Prior knowledge:
Blueprint: E1 13-16, H1 20-31, E2 37-40, E3 52-54, E4 60-62, H2 73-82, E5 88-92, E6 95-99, E7 102-105, H3 117-134, H4 144-152, H5 154-169, H6 190-199, E8 212-216, H7 222-230, E9 236-237, E10 242-246, E11 251-254, E12 259-261, E13 264-267, H8 271-277, H9 283-289, E14 293-304, E15 314-316, E16 326-329, H10 330-333, E17 347-355, H11 363-376, E18 386-400, H12 405-418, E19 421-423, H13 426-429, H14 437-453
Parallel strand pairs: 1-2, 1-13, 2-9, 6-15, 13-19
Antiparallel strand pairs: 3-4, 5-8, 6-7, 10-11, 11-12, 14-17, 14-18, 15-16, 16-17
Amino acid sequence: xxxxxxxxxxxxxxxxxxxxxxxxxxxxxxxxxxxxxxxxxxxxxxxxxxxxxxxxxxxxxxxxxxxxxxxxxxxxxxxxxxxxxxxxxxxxxxxxxxxxxxxxxxxxxxxxxxxxxxxxxxxxxxxxxxxxxxxxxxxxxxxxxxxxxxxxxxxxxxxxxxxxxxxxxxxxxxxxxxxxxxxxxxxxxxxxxxxxxxxxxxxxxxxxxxxxxxxxxxxxxxxxxxxxxxxxxxxxxxxxxxxxxxxxxxxxxxxxxxxxxxxxxxxxxxxxxxxxxxxxxxxxxxxxxxxxxxxxxxxxxxxxxxxxxxxxxxxxxxxxxxxxxxxxxxxxxxxxxxxxxxxxxxxxxxxxxxxxxxxxxxxxxxxxxxxxxxxxxxxxxxxxxxxxxxxxxxxxxxxxxxxxxxxxxxxxxxxxxxxxxxxxxxxxxxxxxxxxxxxxxxxxxxxxxxxxxxxxxxxxxxxxxxxxxxxx
Length: 472
């Protein structure tokens, strides 16, 4: 057992994972005056999926597309404590979809007047038809493919929604649920779509919570979490990989054999991994967790010895001949993302390629195809020298909201909580719809308040257990 001494009568809380959720949990425990906690991170540094790296050429890259926006006052407070005003850059989102030979403003379904005439006519016709049949009500379909058809009609689904979602999720929309779409898929008002044809310009009202966003002036998104980790007084343990959880004795075992006891375990590691390492988990719980699905993403960062005048933030690519689903104009986010903050000399594009876990990855081929696609679509000049190419493979990138996901969670989550194990964060809860950084911070703060003060969690509604007959 670990020789760390804990105050008698004070529950010891172990936190697995120093991403946004785990760091926020530890920070809130400190704020509450609760000193009996241990934060364990398997990686050498904090940040998890919200980390940033600087490559040998001096380009900074995030591990995928992150921007800073918030639904919660707790996240806003944290950011204000960690950064002075001038240390955050603020942007208005400028995002487009590549369609045929043109750029269509995001959300695609609200800008059909940018499409070629024949495509526009068919999309509007189908949109009006399904809207009239629904009578303005939201679609009642439970699978994502049917929901898209009922919401937008066949023409829009065929031209954008099916190819894009199949690409980003590496999963057929028919295999996905529709319960997650609320803030993630923009609506399309037939009246507004038709009105746009007379003004030929993007609407003044922009959709979505990230219509404006912030970004650290230096260090990428990971700067947020490095600063938060730094104020934990050195109590974060990195390179501390947990190999086993014993829910009976309430201990975790590290790779080196060290055992650490806990009264409560906050697990921000992926839910399927937590179940796999919990030796007492019964077979029906293991089978259920084995049905959870995720994507793996290759982040290919490409730095160029060529400036860019492109003012846009990020771009979507539904077409199959482009390897990535999204390209982010990363040198626009912050000049310090390129060497010497020299945007008169350098530019950088961060691309994301989704795949099913276990897909063989040819790093050089992905880099070459991504570079060619950026040049082919006019984002990088044909003669621009490539100054850097950096690839990061994220085995756990996004939890896929499959049709049986909620049934799995209804089986697994209550069993864990009965054993004082609290899965939280993007992959702890396996809920993409609450998978942003601000959601993760809110979950971490809320579980700390619950365990120390008995406060109700405001974001995460406990998942009810299914009846025994409903288990898989």
